[in-house]
Amino acid sequence: MAVRRLLPFALVMIAAPVPAAEGDRAWQDPALSPDRRAALALAAMTREEKLVMVIGAFASEQVGKPEVHAPAAARDGSAGYVPGVPRLGIPPLWEADAAMGVATQPTARTARAAIALPSTLATIASWDEDIARRGGAMIGGEARRYGFNVLLAGGINLTREPRNGRNFEYGGEDPLLAGRMVGAQIAGIQSNGIVSTIKHYALNAQQTDQFTLDARIDRAALRQSDLLAFQIAIERGRPGAVMCAYNRVNGAYACENDWLLNHVLKRGWRYPGWVMSDWGAVHSTVAAANAGLDQQSAATFDASSYFGPPLAQAVARGAVSPARLDDMVRRILRSMFANGLVDRPVAIAPIDAAADRAVAQDAAERGAVLLRNARDTLPLRAAALHRVVVIGGHADVGVLSGGGSSQVHPVGGNAVPGLSPTSWPGPVIYLPSSPLAALRRLLPGVRVAYLDGSDPVAAARAAAESDVAIVFATQWTAESQDTSLTLPDGQDALIAAVAGTARRSVVVLETGGAVLMPWADRVDAILQGWYPGAGGGVALARLLTGAVNPSGHLPITVPRDDAAGRCTPLHGTPAPGTAFAVDYCEGAAVGYKAFDRDGRAPLFAFGHGLSYTRFAFDAPTAARARRGVRVSFAVRNTGTRRGAAVPQLYVERADGGFEAPRRLAGWARLDLPAGTMRRATITVDPRLLASYDSATERWVIAGGRYRFRLGTSSRDLGPPVSLMLSATRFAD
Ligand code: BGC
After folding, report:
1. Res 17 pLDDT > 60
2. What is the CA radius of gyration of the chain?
3. Other C-beta atoms within 10 Å of 385: how many?
4. For tag attachment on the chain, is the N or C end more exposed, with fewer CB atoms within 10 Å?
5. How does DSSP assign 488-550, residue by residue?
6. Which atom of ligand 1 is nearest to the CA of 103?
7. Which residue is closest in CA terms to ligand 1's atom 11?
């Protein structure tokens, strides 16, 4: 990343004054279709005006480039700015990062205080499209009020590499789960009359050497995995823009990859929006423009303003056709009209922090995963306790968040300022929501002490003197750097020491993704809290005390050991900056699928998540539907508390013809009072029954027997119901 903030100069093009538009500004008529409006506006534009819209500026100061300044009209301290065409009533694009909320760049003079959702992975762990949509609506609402009309949200890359430092911003291991959840979040963001991106297209699965690496994968396998996630999310969320990735994919940079951009996205999926580059991901003018890149973002991050004067010259000499330039601009305009940027201009207004924090807290409560609960240690009951000790993780003041461009600067400020790194990809920020304070409120009459965890001996002693010891373990992960799966700073030893003396021990994890838990069998309970967002402290305390019943389920596998199971090691580039390949040999068998295929036992399986109540599923029935298959069943809450069940449906091909023994084929999330029953029906998308055939570019369902199994995780499955399907082929 050092590279990222240190590249050459910007050239911001100013449109020359031109005569007023002809006609009656018909493109301003909301009754017309976005396509029609885009065509009309485009027809009124000069070439200079078109060229202005396809290149953006960075909207913050750039480290190492004192000569570069953000344009005056940009929202200072944000990610990007693209001028509009005022003469035609086309507003600029004001772009902010927003995986979890309105982010502020590290170099900002003043940060915009915003409310952070839990990490994207935490929201995905809720398996709850409704909260994903509401979370998106919340951050989109804040974006509007801060004057942004494009949110650089929608991270969806699959967790191929558990050590990827950005996994917390991404979609987990499964294409269906990621696609539906991220699609819902995008729809929520865009309900505010603004555009959301989806990113990073495609295979941005690790940070190490991401600017040079060539991600190699079989095309059919890619269609069945990461691209299927993108496809589903695009269908459901209809993002106005797609952001192409830094890395190469099968030889060509993602932002000049004709197959990815033109062939699959634009022609195959008929995607009508625009493709913007990641910040510093452009390497050419003609190749990128003709391969399908529509807009160069923050051009000062690249070696040249490729889509500035070089593009004007390329169009003039015919290397890029005028029609292609029109196509770029038409796509941008279309998304602007389709998403309300023209009809509902953004207006700066105060945010409602309390209401927004409530949404973030709800998301954290739904996404936290109870991994283990031996001896019914949780929920903590005030009546049964005298002394509790809370240890570590700065739980006295806040909860951790992930670093990099998505960093939200919290309302109330950083609860633990000064931690290293203080500059990119830092600062490390703890959101000011104290689990300790919330636990004290929720456990009246109980003495809840706090130790910072720096002294394991003292922690073990305090644990021995308490009824319950709760260790808050944290791991900061961030964009631009990959991570270890081992908790840092001796926290494994701290947990082991506490577990050795405590009557009851609980571990709460605030991590970007999976970590190794060598102490898992020695502690009584483990709550995976992820980065739990602005209401995180309260959410974790409510989960621990049973004010809310845990209902999250893992969207990733927690491995027992560090075996990455990949063909090319994460580290070990031949020489820095040299192109090298990462072979994604697991193909479509991402995460749990590879564990199943290889017969490896995870520590906690994909889909796993406990509750304080119990659920029972009736044997499912399966029937062929017009497209795909419908599976129906009943779920009962057989315990004594209200709770949300997440029955998961997995499909197996009896002849073993899938990339792995089984695939997630659908799920339901049912909120059930104790003692009640509800029926549910899951319709299986036919793509989940098919394999992609690259030669004919068709999805192919092989004729034969398919088994459908309901479960509480990919490794805890009920008896199968079988169905014969006949051979079918279909296009995207
Ligand atoms: C990230 C993008 C982000 C952009 C703008 C890049 O480093 O990869 O996800 O949107 O910066 O800040």
Report:
1. no
2. 25
3. 17
4. C
5. STTHHHHHHHHHHH-SSEEEEEE-SS----TTTTTSSEEEE--S--TTHHHHHHHHHHTSS--
6. 12
7. 279
| Burial category of 501 from C-beta neighbours within 10 Å (exposed 0-12, middle 13-18, buried 19 and up) | middle
339 Ramachandran zone, left/alpha/beta (phi>0; psi -120 to 50)? alpha
The rounded percent of the chain whose pLDDT value lies above 90 is: 89
Q: What single-letter amino acid sits at 407?
A: Q
Q: What is the pLDDT of residue 573?
A: 55
Q: 357 by DSSP, 3-state: which?
A: helix
- Residue 19: pLDDT over 50: no
For ligand 1, mutation pick of 279, 424, 480 (most atoms within 8 Å of CB)? 279
For atom 2 of ligand 1, the residue with the nearest CA is 278
- The alpha carbon of 569 and the centre of ligand 1 are apart by a number of angstroms equal to 25
Q: For residue 2, what pLDDT band results from cuts at 50, 70 and 90?
A: very low
Distance (Å) from CA 488 to ligand 1 centroid: 26
Q: Specify the ligand 1 atom closest to the Cα of 197.
A: 10
d(CA 478, CA 429) in angstroms, rounded, equals 11
User: How close is the Cα of 278 to the center of ligand 1, in Å?
Assistant: 6
Q: Which two tokens stand for residue 8?
A: 């050459």
Task: Identify which of 75, 203, 282, 405 to mutate to test ligand 1's pocket (most ligand atoms within 8 A of the CB).
Answer: 405
Mean pLDDT score across all residues of the chain: 94
Task: Give the other-Cβ count within 10 Å of 546's Cβ.
Answer: 15
Please tell me the distance between residue 361's alpha carbon and the centre of ligand 1 in angstroms: 26
Q: Once rounded to an integer, what is the mean pLDDT over residues 638-654?
A: 97
Please state whether the peptide bond connecting residue 608 to the residue before it is cis, i.e. omega within 30 degrees of 0: no
Q: What is the mean pLDDT of residues 130-155?
A: 98
Which amino acid residue places its CA nearest to atom 4 of ligand 1?
279
Question: CA-to-CA distance for 579 and 573, rounded, in angstroms?
Answer: 8
401 phi-psi bin (left φ>0, alpha ψ -120 to 50, beta other): beta
What distance in angstroms lies between residue 486's CA and the mean position of ligand 1's atoms?
26
679 close to 644: Cβ distance less than 8 angstroms:
no
Is the predicted pLDDT of residue 12 greater than 90, yes or no?
A: no
How many angstroms is it from 80 CA to the middle of ligand 1? 10
Q: CA–CA separation, 662 vs 654, rounded Å?
A: 10
Measure 405 CA to ligand 1 centroid, in angstroms.
6
17 token code pair: 């004054």
Per-residue pLDDT band at 61 (split at 50, 70, 90): confident
Task: Choose among 33, 71, 25, 78: nearest CA to 52.
Answer: 71
What are the residues facing 430 on neighbouring strands? 400
Q: What percent of the chain has pLDDT over 70?
A: 95
Instruction: Give the single-character DSSP code of 106.
Output: T
pTM above 0.90, yes or no: yes
Which residues are near ligand 1 (CB < 6 Å)? 4, 79, 97, 152, 199, 278-279, 405
Residue nearest atom 5 in ligand 1 by C-alpha distance: 79
The rounded Å distance from CA 218 to ligand 1 centre is 27
Which residue reads 């506490």 in tokens?
Answer: 498
Question: Ligand 1 mean position to 279 CA, how many Å?
Answer: 6
* Cα gap 462→174, rounded to integer Å: 42
pLDDT tens digit string along 139-148? Answer: 999 999 999 9
